[in-house]
Write a structure and sequence with these properties.
Elements: H1 16-22, H2 25-28, H3 32-48, H4 54-73, H5 85-97, H6 99-102, H7 110-146, E1 151-156, E2 159-165, H8 166-191, H9 210-216, H10 226-231, H11 234-260, E3 268-269, H12 288-311, H13 325-329, H14 333-346, E4 348-349, H15 351-360, H16 365-374, H17 379-396, H18 405-409, H19 418-422, H20 425-430, H21 442-453
Antiparallel strand pairs: 1-2, 3-4
Helix pairs in contact: 3-4, 3-7, 3-9, 4-5, 7-8, 7-14, 7-21, 8-11, 8-21, 11-12, 11-14, 12-14, 16-17
Length: about 450
């Protein structure tokens, strides 16, 4: 086990089991790029302020660049005996350039080092997640353009309610995912302030330039309170909340895909590449990818709850509990987006089945009531009459389109031949021209909005 950087105060080594429990290298090693980049900026600033020599700084920066290249190429493997990624990099640096490497940690602490690393890591990670959501939005737009006129039943309470287009239905998810991007980007804006230079909690006696390192690392400024700089993890909660909302939307969409691909609905068929079979039932084609996305949502919810719980009892400033901020943030969102988007892109939409389902559900009943209202009948009276007509259709095994006109006239003389055009599914959809409705050019407006957004 490599000697700890903090070993001077201690007379015996840390117990092996305690050492493993304390170590975070197995999960924080993924922040190696951010850790090394932050150290390079810190070394440059130390030279600029005359805290270490320009020669030492150049040696440190060049060696850190070599270490980064070696990790990227696989030439240098992480030493799992190291306590964390910071200690691993510093130990490797010292191994390569001797005492010069030991000057790097001047005027900083692991507390501000990890705080800057995780902000930079989450900034990069969030940009990747936003990119993946934009790819999903592109597929949603593509499918919406393809199925602008495909009629399906719209549901409330999972009961057939009113006719809509398939485009309008999936564009609702498009709107959700645009908000998800906004939420993530908002959180990143608040996070994008550098804690580097806060040191352990109280700052340093050296005349450092925190604004220089902040600018070099792409931050919008510095954290103004050194205690807050090392102990704030609000941004973790915000981002986890945004990620949990992304997962909730993916899960709702997955639930519909699971239902739509069942024999009971048969509105879609998933590509073979995104389904699995049964070990004993040869006829099965299971929507496992959609189900796994739905299942992994619970994990991300748990991550958010875990983060809130870790933070709720921590006094200022840094505490080791805060090591628990990372594993929660390194979870399932990217993986789920990565599989959901091509699954949606390759699925087949069975438009005839959707249309037939819309015909059978009496989902044009509101339009029939509106027909009477336009002829002067109060809505509540029209509602009651149409309810009785639906009941008669069910009793006779008919639908509103096939009930004869003479039967309609028993309920009101306001009915005429025009009712059949009024209650056709195409009319029901196309005449819903209110802004944001399923008719008119609403789909085009939504697609244009999403394309402009991304």
């Amino acid at each position: 086990c490599m000697e700890k950087m903090w070993a001077g105060r201690f007379q015996k080594a840390l117990d092996k089991q305690a050492d493993d429990f304390n170590s975070s290298i197995h999960f924080d090693s993924r922040m190696y790029k951010q850790d090394i980049t932050g150290s390079m900026a810190h070394a440059s600033m130390l030279a600029e302020k005359g805290i270490i020599s320009k020669e030492d700084s150049a040696k440190i920066v060049d060696c850190l660049a070599e270490i980064l290249d070696d990790i990227n190429s696989g030439k240098l493997l992480f030493d799992l005996d190291a306590e964390d990624i910071h200690m691993f990099v510093e130990s490797e640096l010292t191994k390569r350039i001797g005492d010069t490497g030991k000057r790097l940690h001047t005027a900083r602490s692991r507390n501000d080092q990890v705080a800057v690393d995780i902000r930079m890591y989450l900034r990069d990670e969030s940009a990747e997640i936003v990119g993946l959501i934009k790819k999903l939005l592109s597929v949603i737009c593509k499918k919406a353009e393809e199925y602008k006129t495909a009629i399906m039943p719209g549901y409330t309470h999972l009961q057939r309610a009113q006719p809509i287009t398939f485009a309008h239905h999936i564009l609702a998810y498009g709107m959700m995912f645009t908000r998800d991007i906004s939420r993530i980007e908002d959180a990143v804006k608040r996070m994008n302030y550098s804690p580097l230079g806060s040191c352990a909690l109280a700052g340093t006696t050296y005349d450092t330039d925190r604004y220089m390192t902040a600018k070099q690392l792409g931050f919008d400024g510095i954290t103004l309170n050194s205690i807050d700089g090392v102990s704030d993890r609000d941004f973790c909660v915000e981002l986890l909340s945004a990620y949990a909302t992304v997962m909730m939307h993916l899960s709702r969409f997955s639930e519909e895909i699971v239902m739509w691909s069942s024999w009971e609905f048969k509105f879609i068929e998933l590509d073979d590449g995104y389904t699995t079979g049964s070990s004993i039932m040869p006829q099965k084609k299971n929507p496992d990818m959609a189900e796994l996305v739905r299942g992994k949502t619970g994990r991300v919810y748990g991550d958010l709850m875990s983060m809130l719980t870790v933070l709720k009892g921590i006094p200022l400033a840094y505490n080791k509990d805060m090591q628990e901020d990372k594993e929660s943030l390194f979870d399932a969102v990217k993986m789920c987006l990565g599989v959901f988007t091509p699954m949606l892109d390759t699925m087949t939409v069975l438009t005839d089945n959707m249309y037939k389902a819309a015909q059978k559900g009496f989902i044009n009943a509101t339009d029939l009531a509106d027909f009477l209202v336009k002829k002067g009948m109060p809505f509540r009276t029209a509602y009651k009459n149409v309810g009785m007509i639906v009941a008669e259709c069910i009793e006779k095994g008919l639908v509103l389109e096939t009930l004869p006109l003479e039967e309609y006239k028993k309920y009101s003389n306001l009915f005429d031949d025009g009712l059949f055009k009024e209650i056709s599914l195409e009319t029901c959809v196309s005449k819903r021209i209110s802004a944001g409705g399923t008719g008119g050019n609403s789909a085009d407006i939504q697609i244009e909005y999403i394309k402009k957004f991304i």
